[in-house]
Amino acid sequence: MESEFIAWLGARLPRHEQLTLGIGDDAALVRLRERGDLLISTDMLMDTVDFHLEQVDPRRIGRKAMAVNLSDIAAMAGRPLAAVVSVALPRSAGLPLAKALCEGFLPLAEQFDLALAGGDTNSWDGPLVISVTILGEPTERGPLTRRGALPGDVILVTGAFGGSILGRQFDFEPRVAEALALRARYELHAGIDVSDGLTLDLSRLAAASGCGAVVEPGKIPIAEAAREFAEHEPSRGTALDHALSDGEDFELILAAPPDAARQMLADQPLGVPLTAIGQVVAEPGLWQVDAAGARRPLEARGFLH
Fold this sequence. Notes:
Blueprint: H1 2-12, E1 19-21, E2 29-30, E3 39-46, H2 58-75, E4 78-90, H3 95-111, E5 115-124, E6 129-138, E7 154-158, H4 168-171, H5 176-185, E8 190-193, H6 198-208, E9 212-215, H7 224-232, H8 239-245, E10 252-256, H9 258-267, E11 274-281, E12 285-289, E13 295-297
Parallel strand pairs: 4-5, 9-12
Antiparallel strand pairs: 1-2, 3-6, 4-6, 7-10, 7-11, 8-10, 9-11, 12-13
Helix pairs in contact: 1-3, 2-3, 2-5, 7-8
């Protein structure tokens, strides 16, 4: 099966200028556009943990596997370069499943000019496992990390949050173009993508920066899916609860100095909304303030691996 799949893949993959040597050898050879640092990220998705194969079109699973890695490059305001994909296939599925997964991530690769450099396949008696490793490069302004937030910075987010379980977890748009545009035009101090939950990932950014964060819950942009989920499953929390903790939104959290944040909010330069939801503070921890300005602790909730 592997030889047949490699032959099919070799004919299916588009040629890419950065890929000097692609699949079929012991390693791929990727030509970097410029000398400098290389961004590397990897994510593994597993059946029954990150998706349920019997419930989801495999093409959507393949797309998600590539998209979550692109989101990591976006969080660093980087340019995607190349990716390798490895899959452990259930013996009963084999070649048709491998092809369907490939057809899922190929459109994203083409959209973001990403060279697909190879990977590995295997079959076993367990569930589907798919792992993508992605390479990228920082822009001229350098990588955007979690460590640079400063007290007084405004906390901004792209898009809306919550309810991704209703389908957006497979169909979200990695914010690569948005991150590159913002990085080029404005001063940004720190960033992270929301994979595990808005409050949990914000707490990680704050902790990495040696700071705290104060959130105004009334300003959190709530996705329509979160409201729908809360309406049908009221015992599982409010729409705001879902926005704060559901995860798999893959939007960006950014920390920017006040002047830059004001300009970004006035310009709204992206096709997706930018919203200010709080402020970075010197005191460690995560906090929320009500309409009267009273501050109390905010639990960092989300998916813990």
